[in-house]
Amino acid sequence: MKRFPLCALIICSLLFVFTHDSDADSKSPKWAATSVEKAGPDFQIQGEYSGVLGEDSNEPLKYGVQVIALGDGAFQAVGYPGGLPGDGWDQKEKVSAKGEKTGNVISFTSEQGRGDLEDGKITIFDADGNQVGTIKKVHRKSPTLGKKAPANAKVLFDSNRAEETVKNFTNGKITNEGLLKEGVTSKQKFKDGHLHLEFQLPFMPQARGQGRSNSGCYVLGRYEVQILDSFGLEGKDNECGGIYKVGAPSVNMCFPPLAWQTYDIDFQAAKYDKEGNKTDKAKITVKHNGVTIHDNREIDGPTPGGTNKDETIAGPLFLQNHSNPVRFRNIWVIEK
């Protein structure tokens, strides 16, 4: 069998029963689901798919697809030869195709093949109509998800002790489920250290761009690592994992909305001599869902929207409120 470049996919036919509830049918870009139970049927279709094409051929090909919900039964598909981002994709080639719905079928179309999605799997056919493989829906988890705080760590928030640890933040508020809400600033301040943060993006299929599950993780209150539903997007400096106005992530590791995600961040404050001259820029290393997306990156100065711009002082952890219900849990810092 010839090597099938599924990056040139796709007619992707999705067969499903429409059981929209009133919330999931909302036309408002501000509508957000914070739980799977309230997300509606489109949520069940969106997500990640992975598998191997041509397993019996001389050139088997690992392949990943991200299916993005756009609201009202509309979807976008992005295909990745070699595997999903962070799982084999070489970042050189991908395809994006918008779905067109006919009855209960949504088709993602390209010139060289099709994929039929049903019951959590996509059956792939090449341009000649030959079946070349099936990829199944997967639910990836960060290898550091649920990582326990070491003995020498300062626990800023623990959802198992929500009522107690929410007091570590100014303006701290929690949900009925014991999760930390956005728009909080830690009372403790830091200079150099390691931060572990777990966050969950709401499902906002009608929203676009910066209005889609937006928050921000401000290290030292002045350097923003963006939090945004960038699932399936390009991975820019204003998207998830980007350091705002500084640099894009090396790879877009954003998981689908409502999946718990992690940031593991090593940070070093800018250094100054006795005369007040800057001798070393602030530096940051970021792992998003276990994959390094910034490696000892230098930051010239504070990014917009933080709590302070003075690089000579210690600063807090600030989790931005952008009017979207982003949730947090398991937050701790090791000072260095």
From TrEMBL:
UniProt GO MF annotations: hydrolase activity
Known Gene3D superfamilies for this protein? Exo-inulinase, domain 1
Q: Which UniProt keywords apply?
A: Signal
User: Which intervals hold domain 3-keto-alpha-glucoside-1,2-lyase/3-keto-2-hydroxy-glucal hydratase?
Assistant: 158-333
Segments passing through the bilayer: none
Cited InterPro entries: AL/BT2_dom (IPR010496)
**Record's signal peptide:** 1-24
- What PANTHER family does UniProt report for this protein, alphabetically? LARGE, MULTIFUNCTIONAL SECRETED PROTEIN, LARGE, MULTIFUNCTIONAL SECRETED PROTEIN-RELATED
Mind telling me what this protein is named?
A: 3-keto-alpha-glucoside-1,2-lyase/3-keto-2-hydroxy-glucal hydratase domain-containing protein
Which organism's genome codes for this protein?
Gimesia aquarii
